Amino acid sequence: MPGVTLIEQNQGPYYTLGAPERADITDAAPGTPLLLTGYVLDDQCNPVAGATLDFWQADGNGSYDNNGYVLRGIQTTDENGAYALTTVIPGQYPGRTEHVHVKVTAPGGPTYTTQLYFPESTANGGDRFYVPELDVTITSYDGSKMTAHFDMVLPV
Ligand code: FE
Fold it and tell me: What confidence tens digit (pLDDT) does each residue in 27-54 have?
């Protein structure tokens, strides 16, 4: 199973503790629907069941909800190590290309913090945090809905 060993990135200024447990973080946030799926894997590429993923991101206009939990949610991988996030394509904001933040924690393990990006965004080159290794793979996009995939391999 292919996957990218997670590269740690800063969490930035907009993380909020205590997000609700849910796989659909959209609420009524503006933006183009995005379904992001993938697996959490250990360094031997075995699936990690019961890993928590704490996602947060900007809406399609590049705004975070810093008072509530719109576009914030914690989910747990299933017995196959799979996750599925229902959200919107994040917008750009000053200095930042489109990105989704996530904290990944295997059962009993440390927490890894990273950010996921979108290939071929025109803003990637102007974002000092962007690394192509953290690009999701876009599996479909018709302008009104995107599906994408990203497998996360936990570092040793
Ligand atoms: Fe951000």
Answer: 999 999 999 999 999 999 899 999 999 9
Torsion angles phi and psi, residue 33, rounded to 5:
-55, 140
Residue 128's DSSP bridge partners are none
Q: Is 134 helix (H, G, I), strand (E, B) or coil?
A: helix
Location of structure tokens 């391999």: 153
Residues near ion ligand 1 (Cβ under 5 Å): 12
Q: How far is the CA of 95 from the centre of ligand 1 (A)?
A: 10
Domain 4-136 sits in CATH at: 2.60.130.10
Residues 6 or more apart whose CB falls under 8 angstroms from that of 120 comprise none
Q: Is the pTM of this model over 0.70?
A: yes
- Domain boundaries defined on the chain: 4-136
For residue 42, report the distance from its CA to the centre of ligand 1, in Å. Answer: 26
Distance 102 CA to ligand 1 centre (A): 10
